[in-house]
Structure formats: C-alpha cells, structure tokens
C-alpha cells in the first residue's frame, strides 16, 4: 500500500472538507484543511486591526505566528499561537474577509510552504483551492469537486444551523458566489481545475457516495 497524496479542490461549500475527512479516515491518512489556515490568518489580522489589503503587514504577522492543525474526535482542530480557534475561524466575519487575505501572494507563499511540509511524507488528503495546481502538483490523485451554487448554499445553511450560526439561504448564496468570484479571479493561484484533475459533481450525490467514488479512485493508485 502506497502513502499517496490526494488533492481535493473546488469552490466553497462543495463538500470538500466533509468528504476529504471521510476519505482520510478510511485510508488511515492525515486530513489537512488548508482553508482553515487562511481563516486563522484572517482571524488574527481582524483581531489585530491589520488592514486586509496590507500584504506586507499580513506577511510580517504570519512569520511570527504558528498555525497548527490537530486531528480530534470532533474533526480537525485549529490552533493559532497555541490557542484553539476552531470555532472562531468559522464566524461570518472571517468567512466574508478570508478571500481578501488569501489573494496576497506573500501570504500564500508562507502557507503553501507549511502545507508542502505537512504533506511531504504522503498519506494525506488535502483540500483547498490551489492544491492540485500549486501545492501538490505531483499528487497521485487530483479531484475537482463542485455542485450548483443553490445546493452549496443549502448545505452551508444546514451546516451553520448545526454550529449555531444564524444565516439566510439567500445571503449564503450571495456570499458563496462572491467568494468563488474572488477566489477564481485573483492573480495568485486562482481557483481553477487542474488539467489532470477529475471533475466530481456532488450536486446529486450523498456524502457517502462522493466519498466512495474518491476511495475507489484512490485505491487504484495505491
Ligand atoms: O475551504 P474554505 O472555504 O474554508 O476556505 C476559505 C477561503 O480560504 C477560500 O474562500 C479561499 O479564499 C481561501 N483558500 C485559498 N486557498 C486554499 C484554501 C482556501 O485561497 N488552498
């Protein structure tokens, strides 16, 4: 059995993290949520009142910050400078600001270096926007996962309800569409399907069906 790298990219709310977690668990691999890292940076920048357009200040802040991802019973926990910020990084404020922070090339460079280190030994499932195109260009399996924006907003709504975050489907749809636009149109590593990635439309798939589809492909590569 080979410790392969699995890259899962796609727009917001396509089910990447839920499905990636199941795939990782089933294979005994490590799950790495790169979006959580961009969220942690954004959370800290907001807290420190750093202007989200100030690339230099953001990069400086990041060089003196530590972001750790730790697996736990409740999924992946995110620690920023030793503090558990797993809930905080999912707030509406962070969600609506993160694409602005993630657009900066220097912020990305620093996080991508960390992500590559985490994945160096293989046996990983990593999800994000630029994993197949930049972070893990040699990943054995690359998946581009999407679903209609209506379905993605519906899923986020249910997700938010579970987390106790208030939201409306219309607002979520707007927020998701705007984030996708910013992520796809930025200059630094935009969200795009890699040429060698397989497209997986999850609109009409259950979580388990999507996970099984990826597991089948993974096992062929192992
Ligand atoms: O995956 P999630 O929705 O938590 O990601 C939050 C944001 O982080 C994305 O909208 C995107 O702006 C940024 N991101 C990124 N590159 C990644 C992962 C996330 O730019 N690899």
TrEMBL record:
Q: What class of enzyme is it?
A: transferase
Assigned EC number? 2.7.4.25
Q: Where does ATP bind?
A: 10-18
Q: Keywords of this protein's UniProt record, alphabetized? A: ATP-binding, Cytoplasm, Kinase, Nucleotide-binding, Transferase
Q: Name one GO molecular function term.
A: kinase activity
Q: Which Pfam families match?
A: Cytidylate_kin (PF02224)
Does the record's keyword annotation contain Glycoprotein?
no
Per UniProt, residues of the Cytidylate kinase domain are 6-219
Location in the cell reads: Cytoplasm
Name the predominant localization: cytoplasm
- CDD domains according to UniProt: CMPK (cd02020)
User: Which reactions are catalysed by this chain?
Assistant: CMP + ATP = CDP + ADP; dCMP + ATP = dCDP + ADP
> Do the record's keywords include GTP-binding?
no
The record's listing under HAMAP family reads: Cytidyl_kinase_type1
User: What PANTHER family does UniProt report for this protein, alphabetically?
Assistant: CYTIDYLATE KINASE, CYTIDYLATE KINASE/PANTOATE-BETA-ALANINE LIGASE
User: Hey, which family's this protein in?
Assistant: Belongs to the cytidylate kinase family. Type 1 subfamily.
Q: What is this protein called?
A: Cytidylate kinase
Q: Which gene encodes it?
A: cmk
């Amino acid at each position: 059995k080979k410790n392969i790298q699995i890259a899962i990219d796609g727009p917001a709310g396509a089910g990447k993290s839920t499905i990636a977690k199941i795939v990782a668990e089933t294979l005994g691999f490590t799950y790495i949520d790169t979006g959580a890292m961009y969220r942690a940076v954004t959370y800290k920048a907001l807290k420190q009142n750093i202007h989200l357009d100030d690339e230099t200040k953001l990069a400086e802040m990041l060089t003196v910050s530590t972001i750790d991802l730790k697996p736990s019973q409740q999924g992946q926990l995110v620690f920023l400078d030793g503090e558990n910020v797993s809930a905080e990084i999912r707030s509406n404020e962070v969600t609506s600001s993160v694409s602005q922070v993630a657009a900066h090339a220097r912020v990305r460079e620093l996080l991508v270096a960390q992500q590559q280190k985490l994945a160096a030994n293989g046996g990983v499932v990593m999800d994000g926007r630029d994993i197949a195109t930049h972070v893990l260009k040699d990943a054995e399996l690359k998946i581009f996962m999407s679903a209609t924006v209506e379905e993605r907003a519906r899923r986020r709504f249910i997700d938010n309800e579970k987390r106790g975050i208030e939201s409306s489907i219309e607002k979520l749809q707007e927020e998701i569409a705007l984030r996708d636009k910013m992520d796809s149109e930025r200059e630094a590593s935009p969200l795009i399907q890699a040429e060698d990635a397989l497209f997986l439309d999850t609109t009409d798939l259950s979580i388990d069906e999507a996970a099984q589809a990826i597991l089948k492909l993974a096992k062929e590569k192992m």
